[in-house]
Fold this protein.
Amino acid sequence: MRLSRRSLLTGVALVGVGTFVARPLWNAIGGAAEPQPLRIPALLDARGQRNSLSLQVQAGNTELFPGRTSRTLGYNGSHLGPTLRVHRGDDVEIAVTNTLKEDTTVHWHGLLIPAELDGGPHQPIQPGTTWRPTLPIRQPAATLFYHPHVHGRTGEQVYRGLAGLLIITDDEEQALGLPSEYGVDDLPLVLQDRQFEDGRLVLPEGMMVTMQGRRGNTTLVNGTPDAVARVPGRLVRLRFVNGSNARIFDLSFDDGRVFHWIASEGGLLEASVEVRSLTLAPGERVEILVDFSDGRPVALETAPDTNFPMMMGPMGRTRNFVAEIFGAGNETVLRFEPAANDGKPSVVPGRLIARDRADASPAIKRRRFVLNMGMGMGGMMGGGMGSGGGMSINGRPFEMARIDERVQIGDTEIWEVTGEMMSHPFHIHGVQFEVLSRNGGQPVARDAGLRDTVLVQEPVELLVRFTQPAVKAPFMYHCHILEHEDNGMMGQFMTS
Ligand code: C2O
Ligand code: CU
Ligand code: CU
């Protein structure tokens, strides 16, 4: 079967998404886009505030495109949130006040803390109230991500702007001398695709949106469309968070330059890895070092988005299909304009940190999870899959009152996870894991390091260490395509 672009788009429109086009900015604002300086979220350093921070969840208006106002949500502002920097060993109190007219939560994605502090769906913050968790920071330096996790409405709240970075630092990391001047040579970069019409943010809805996740025609970096970053002419550290609801980025530079991958979600790698591209799925973070000492402008690009459910046909994965629908070329994510070389040496440390490795002893407990998306095309078109679009794990859609798994604290287990119909970023709260195998073979390069989120379609085996108590409340595991999560592709576990 081969669909023309026209019939395909019509088909998509019929099931309610409208036509969305992955690339051009002119489509989003009805004119050529002006480059805008990259916005840098404010930095709240916990030690500078006696380890007591506050976040106000609020609604407001934001000019994401100049001169065009969008209704948005933010923390301590109208869109996105400040970067919180905390130090290993500290206990940090964070007062979160909800000024919205609906419940929200704040989840500290990647933080290893007891479940009742985790900010999942079991810790709702009602309108007009304040939640004050004290977070024990006990894990190594890393780039984490905070965002809402309210039952059934995570996707919409994140989409409208609730997301921020949580950076952990420690002495070991500081001793490495990595670039760490916030906003100068250490840049927070929240990548999000969003749908704009005439320069205003719109909220895509409908069955197709549930199936494929909310996507958009414009890539924002820290809320900036068509962003340009001025950077020093030396080694610069970039901390990426994929804060999209569903979009996977496949990042590289337009001059093909090599860069250095230094940290996964769990923090620094044992040694830096030279790469020319990196895949970043929703919920994932990476840190890289890029050498701008040649002073030449360069653009960070992404390959086209191809992660659609197989119902869009087996041609969904072919180059022709991608080229026909999305254009053959890459899309610019962020342009860099380096200053002239400032003479500071740009040395990439080879060794970063030592890690102890978990071993997979043969006696280890194994659990299997299949991320389900209904019954395929026939089932979907026949409407035979219930209100959630058939989203579930092991055939069971998420239920607040049902504990799916019980784990012993201190145990290491193998979780074997498979995704139906497309790639799903699978995330587990309160743990870090290593990828042991992918599709029965070795993990791919990008699977390296300690992680809390991993892209899954073909089966992966994860070696998971459970160290945190989930006694008063459960931890979640779910797909980080937020519309999948909201519609039931989530489960919960307790530890004891
Ligand atoms: Cu970033 Cu349960 O999520
Ligand atoms: Cu999480
Ligand atoms: Cu999914």
Remarks:
- Helices lie at 5-14, 25-29, 154-160, 171-175, 207-212, 319-326, 377-381, 482-486.
- Residues 112 and 430 are 5 Å apart (CA to CA).
- The two ends are 52 Å apart (CA to CA).
- DSSP finds eight helices and 35 strands in the chain.
